[in-house]
Design a protein that fits this description.
By secondary structure, the chain is mainly beta. The protein has a single domain, classed as Immunoglobulin-like (Sandwich). It contains one helix and nine strands. Strands 1, 4, 5, 6, 8 and 9 form a six-stranded antiparallel sheet that branches. Strands 2-3-7 form a three-stranded antiparallel sheet, with no helix packed on it. It is globular and about 40 Å long. It starts with a helix and ends with a strand.
Length: 156
């Protein structure tokens, strides 16, 4: 029984991070769009200070909304410089947001100095039918956007 409680405690420690849940990937099922594939939009050398998107997974729910799981890396140094958000953009530049008043698709509210890279999810995003691709980018407090982005392309 001790092992059970010890294991349970370790799981809680790994899952916790300021109340930000990490979702377990599920199978992609989409009647409107084929399964997404992740491709790097461009492989460019970026400065170490930029927030880079390393991985994106998009899962369509039964109600048609999408959940994006995004892995970001940034050399967070504390409250003065950390990755503070990421965006999902349509080809025309429109930013998908669950809340129109949010500065990003997913607002990151604290530094992740000891958790690099890190993955956070955002659900409730509506990707318009007929959309061929979306672009995901990350932002940091000091340098803004400028790191590696990833494009999910549904065309092939």
């Amino acid at each position: 029984m001790k092992r059970f409680y010890l294991l349970w405690g370790v799981v809680w420690l790994l899952v916790g991070c300021g109340g930000q849940p990490v979702l377990t990937p599920t199978a992609v099922s989409s009647p409107a769009l084929p399964a997404p594939s992740a491709t790097v939009a461009s492989v460019t050398t970026t400065t170490a200070a930029n927030a880079d998107v390393l991985f994106v997974r998009a899962v369509q729910g039964a109600a048609g909304s999408w959940t994006f799981q995004v892995t970001v890396t940034h050399p967070d140094t504390g409250w003065d410089d950390y990755a503070d958000g990421w965006d999902v953009l349509l080809p025309d530049g429109t930013i998908l947001k669950p809340d129109p008043n949010s500065p990003f698709t997913r607002l990151l509210t604290h530094p992740h100095e000891t958790e690099q890279p890190f993955t956070r999810s955002q659900g409730g995003l509506i990707v318009p039918e007929g959309t061929d691709a979306v672009r995901v980018r990350a932002h940091d407090l000091l340098d803004g956007f400028g790191g590696q982005e990833i494009v999910l392309d549904w065309t092939g």
